[in-house]
Structure formats: structure tokens, C-alpha cells
Amino acid sequence: MDVLTQNFSLYGKGFLGTVQLTVYASLLALALGILMAAFRVAPVASLRAFGTAWVTVLRNTPLTLLFFAVMLGLPRFGLVLPFTVFAVIALGCYTSAFICEAVRAGINTVPVGQGEAARSLGMTFDQTLGAVVLPQAFRTVIPPIGSTLIALAKNSAIAGSFSVTELLGTYKPLNERGYSIIWSFVWIAVGYLIITLTISAIFAVLERRWGVPR
């Protein structure tokens, strides 16, 4: 317990850093993921191509490489931001590809007749997708989205290698202070467990309320 009690502020700072990364990157991933899913089912060929390229590139790019591309590449184009913001961009964009595929799979579970009925009433593609298709698709994609966001929380550990304050990075100063590396990692693991169990609990509530009965 000495590792935790004597370094509680250090652990707390790292824990809050990971929570912030997870929350902000999750919001970005959900927004981009839903948008790319809409692109992938859009009647416009150029949008479908863009959505497909987005998913293909990001799903097949190592996250660490994406961090390097964002952290080192964007400043070359004059975009200079705090490293935390760069980390959110990298995590959010990477995860959005997986959110996109989960949402697209949910859209495919909605009967085709639902969209046809909406169009017969004069609704546009945007109206059909937003008011008819996505609300029904949402019910089926709650579990996979929850799993994806749990993975995002764990992937946020990579940000510590790029001077971003997060939970895993606390082991370095603790090691320099001579604390047991084993117990340092035990308490780091407890922190990640709290975060992931919280996400699981939130999505369990969502699934019980809006999920498809099985």
C-alpha cells in the first residue's frame, strides 16, 4: 500500500489523464465513426469511397505509427497543439474506424423496407438515416461499441510515450524513486480496471434499456 499512499497525487494525476484521454477520444471516435458509417452507406459514390478509404487505412495502420504521424506530421503543416490534443486526435481517429464498422453492421440489420418506406414518404437520405435507420441500428451495436471504447481506454497507454500525462507513465517516476516495479504496475492495473469496469457498467445499463432482447 505504501506505493499508493505515498504517491497518491501522482497516481491521481495519471488516472485523471487517462480518463480525460478516454472521454475526449471516445467522443471524437463516436462522431467520426457515425459520420464514416453514413458515408459508407450513402448513395454518393465519392462519399462511399472516402468512407471505405478511411476505414481501410486506419484499421490497417499500427496505432503507434499513427501517433508518430499525428505528433510529428501535423506540426509540419503549421498545426501546433498540445500533445494531449494530438493524442486525442490519434486515438479518436484510429478508434473511429472500428466504430464505423460496428455502426455499419448495425445499419445492415435494419430491414430494407424501413428505408424504402421512409423514402416513399418523401424523406431525404439524411432524414431516413437519422430518424429511421440509426435509432434502430443503435440498439444492436451497443455491445460492440462498448468493447471498442474499452479497447480505446487501454490503447491510451501509448500516449505516455509521447509526453502525455496518463496512468501507465506513472511507473517511470516511481521506478526512479526506488519503489517496487511489481506493485507500481499492480496499482496501475487497478486504475485501468476501474476505468474499463465503469465503461462496461455504463454500456450494460444502455443495453438493458435499449438493447435488442436475446
UniProtKB/TrEMBL annotation:
**Is the keyword Manganese assigned to this protein?**
no
This chain's protein is named: Amino acid ABC transporter permease
> Which residue windows are transmembrane per the record?
21-41, 53-72, 79-99, 181-206
Compartments, as annotated in UniProt: Cell membrane
Keywords, A to Z? Amino-acid transport, Cell membrane, Membrane, Transmembrane, Transmembrane helix, Transport
Q: Name one Pfam family in it.
A: BPD_transp_1
Family, according to the entry, reads as follows:
Belongs to the binding-protein-dependent transport system permease family. HisMQ subfamily.
* PROSITE patterns per record: ABC_TM1
* Membrane association type: Multi-pass membrane protein
Q: Which InterPro entries match?
A: AA_ABC_transptr_permease_3TM, ArtM/GltK/GlnP/TcyL/YhdX-like, MetI-like, MetI-like_sf
- What phylogenetic lineage does the species belong to? Bacteria, Bacillati, Actinomycetota, Actinomycetes, Kitasatosporales
- Ranges where the ABC transmembrane type-1 domain occurs: 15-203
